[in-house]
Amino acid sequence: MDTNIKKRFENLSKRSKIIFLSTFVVIIIVLFMLVFGSSTTEEEIPTYKVKKGNFLISLAESGELIAKNSITIPAPRVRGTLKIVYLIPEGKYVAAGEVLVKFDPTEALAKVQEEQSKLEMAMSEKDKLLANHSSSNAQMESQLKSAELSFELSKLNLEQMKFEAEAKQREAKLNHQKNELSYLQTKQEFESKKIIQNSELKKMQIEIKQRQNDLDEAKRVLDALTLTAPAEGLVVYAANWSNDGRKYTIGDTPWGGATIVTLPDLSFMQSLTSVNEVDVSKIKVGNNVVVKLDAFQDSTFEGTIANVASLGKQKGNDPNIKVFEVLVDIKGKSKILKPGMTTSNKIVINQISDVISVPQEAVFDKGKNKVVYVKDGSSYEEVKVETGEKNEDFVVITKGLEGGETVFLKDPTITEEDKGKSDNSGIPEDKR
Asked: How confident is the model at residue 347 (pLDDT cuts 50, 70, 90)?
């Protein structure tokens, strides 16, 4: 700045100095933008290095991880209403024998107490019966001994009357016959009574056995209301199909036999996916699949199709769309593979070897032709191409490129001014 200008600047007011400096700065910024930012250079446009390689034709489908083999833990098949009062936290790794589920034991416990009481009463009745039998048998044995003694005495007396008068002999004989009959009758009564007693005792023993069986069954039911892990594994709740398919929770009342918990074998995982009916004919068992976890995008697993459902089912609420369930076996093991995780599955339908492919955004429609823009130093060359197979990201170039070229992923012919015009909702300039 020369002396005169400097003196003039110093003579300006403070406000004028600020305005002057601000204007100067704005002019510098505008000049910088005109020189360096007036147009989009090729360096600002993303590019792709063209190369030959294998080209995968695939279907992209979402899925969910499941274990190929799982231990199912069903609700017990017992009488009465089942109500869940305890559930082990889902996702916990449990040891064999660890408690998984408990059902309300109130009814079962009352039944155990009832049957226990009936058994005790039956055993008490048996004790009373045995006591009565013992007392009765003692009395009968005494009567039998007395009758036997009278019989033996009359027999002896009859022997002694051989030399007495005939009248006395007849009297002794009659007395002997009477005592013999009494003895035989008493003996018969005693034997009959023993038969009755044995029958009563057998009946009581049958009742006690039944009461014991009823008690054992009541205890079995009570024990069945506590579900334990038969082996170690990861806890996964089952779906409650009586309640819109949501997972079981405390308070639910499942039916007997319904699966409450599963313990999946994490050593062999699968991805359960579905394929639209228009695409299902393109795939078959054995097709390779690239599986990615949505929660771990950097983790990729190889897989193969293990099964394709023979029957389709409705997709969502649309009766016109049918899908077929597909099971994908995942190769290898990993601790990050957990049931219920969502997956992104790329089902490989076909693989073409040694072809040129580029991202789909590198190919542009120019009238009836398809073109790519090949970088040529600081400029570009428009090259007409022919395309072949494509997947969700890339397209095969059958003619026009040889490999090694660098192509633009955005049209370099579109200027910032063109972009601005295209942002005006398609309204012609003369009508804005």
From this structure: very high
Q: Structural domain tally of the chain?
A: 4
Q: Please give the structure tokens belonging to residue 102.
A: 């408990």
Give residue 132's domain range.
107-224
CA 234 to chain centre: 10
Whether the CB-CB separation of 130 and 205 falls below 8 Å is answered with no
What CATH code is carried by the domain that includes residue 319? 2.40.30.170
**Inter-CA distances, 140 with 148, 176, 192, 351, Å:** 12, 21, 11, 103
pLDDT single digits (tens) 64-74: 999 888 899 99
pLDDT of residue 180: 78
User: What stretches of 246-368 adopt beta strand conformation (E)?
Assistant: 246-247, 259-264, 269-276, 288-293, 300-308, 313-315, 318-330, 342-359, 364-366
Lowest mean pLDDT among 182-186, 265-269, 280-284, 378-382: 182-186
Distance CA 54, CA 308 (A): 26
Fill in the amino acid letter for 30. V
Residue 1 scores a pLDDT above 70? no
Which alpha helices (DSSP H) does 225-244 contain, by range? none
Contact assessment for residue 290 and residue 340, using Cβ atoms and an 8 Å cutoff: no
Rg (CA), the chain: 50
Strand partners, 326: 273, 308
Task: Assess whether 420 and 306 both reside in one domain.
Answer: yes
Residues 176 and 245 in one domain: no
